[in-house]
Automatic annotation (TrEMBL), chain A:
Organism of this sequence: Dietzia psychralcaliphila
Protein name, UniProt field: Protein glxC
InterPro entries: Glu_synth_asu_C_sf (IPR036485), Glu_synth_lsu_3 (IPR012061)
GO molecular function: oxidoreductase activity
Automatic annotation (TrEMBL), chain B:
Annotated ranges, domain Glutamine amidotransferase type-2: 2-300
SUPFAM superfamilies in alphabetical order: N-terminal nucleophile aminohydrolases (Ntn hydrolases)
Gene3D superfamilies: Glutamine Phosphoribosylpyrophosphate, subunit 1, domain 1
Name used for this protein in its record: Glutamine amidotransferase
Keyword RNA-binding: no
This protein's record includes keyword Transferase: yes
Amino acid sequence: MPEQAYAPEDLTPDGYARTTPSQVIDVRETGLRETNRILQESDGTGRYLLTEPRGAHALAVGLDHPDEIVIDGPTGYYTAGMNDGAHVTVNGNVGVGVAENMMSGTVRVTGSASQSAGATAHGGLLVISGDAGARCGISMKGVDIVVGGSIGHMSCFMGQAGRLVVLGDAGDALGDSLYEVHIYVRGRVESLGADCVEKEMRPEHHTELGELLDRAGVTGVTTGEFRRYGSARTLYSFDVDNASAY
Amino acid sequence: MCGIVGLHLRDPDLEPRLGDLLTTMLGEMTDRGSDSAGVAVYGNPDWTPAGSATVTVLADGVDALTLSSRVGTHLGCEVRGRELGATVLLSAGTGTGPEALASAVRAAVPEAVLVGLGSELAVLKGVGLPLDLAAGFGLPGASGWQGVGHTRMATESAVTPAGSHPFSVGPDQCIVHNGSFSNHASVRRELARRDIHCDTLNDTEVAARFVAAQIALGAGIDQALAEMAGVLDGFYTLLVSTAEEFAVFRDPIACKPAVIAETDRYVAMASEYRAMAHLPGIDEAHLYEPEPGRVYHWHR
């Protein structure tokens, strides 16, 4: 299964026009449940174009086949949640919790995302071209997240595994109570959360970051422009000196 | 939960459509709160005729004719009454200010609850499904230059018309709230010591009283909300409006949602984008989520 179903040049807002959808679904006419049923029962070879999403919640959730889905317009909460293998592109903004608990596949957003993008996600790739709000990547467990703009406060809180790449700035308390996520930020970090520290960019980190940028289709930036942040690993186990903090 | 919607028009050509646009916004937020709902409309000549003062009253069991006659007798001038759903609008012509009309209502109909006063503002609220209430108010046909609305999922006080939002306790001022305040009981007691009293046990009313008191002392909306944030603890997205301003404010943690859409023709705000998906030109709007702890405001 290809990790990236769309070539970067197909991911512009009119990118879907260059692919031929096997089925066009008007979400407004079809209804949310019926739309999700069609997608969930697909055989993995479908190319769907969803029109008129009009901010609907829980669109394209629970998909476990490698279908390609383009949603033409802004969506609401939990878009492509629990995704396990599908390749979903949203031409527009998304609400809270896009790709929450994703297991595998790709979710791409051409606009901006609200809070908790990629929350608790275990795998796959989430690319947000615009900004992501607060708590981006909260409790992420293995997903790779690439944000073209900036992210809000408390992002990557308790992040356990995976990589978070931010081309813009990061808000307050980045990586608070962090476990093992690798965080790369190109812009300014408002503040670091408890136990999150800046770390050296060693050759393997340049390699890792370069591959992530390539997979996300990001061009025009070099890995040398980023700083790396990670866990100081002092909160892993209880230390009596920290008792007053509990 | 709870849902918030607001529309501040910049283009006068949209004013005849204000109520219609606001009705759809409100209906889209039914999932966020179906207990009760309310709206406030600024500048509808039918509800708030130019040059007159208008108050909104909840007077269970007392009809508009009786109310207007009792208040009119007290004031010694003509007062027009009009029932819209569970609420009654009372208007008095030139010479009577909103505060004087409100005082007359308190004196002449002590059992009534005053839920709005001003010269441009009509506050309408009740218990039931948002779209049913909007139809009862005649909201779809209402014009105006600014409107706010709220769908309520009650957490802090009883489901009653008086406990519904918006809360309007100062002239032409209005607050709607998504979230809750945790120390509203102690702040209510502190306000009572300053002789500022609440009509309900609702947490948002405390915030409305606090902000109105700050404005009465001469504070602008920015300053009043900053003062409020230092005193009232909780989580909230607030939409605050006056006859001149439209303001959005989220607490510093910002776990309650808010989306703003700006175009040359309007500023719109809602808990979720889907409440704005039908607005004209929304595809070209500047869409963003307000930053935590920062007051966003627009002047007429």
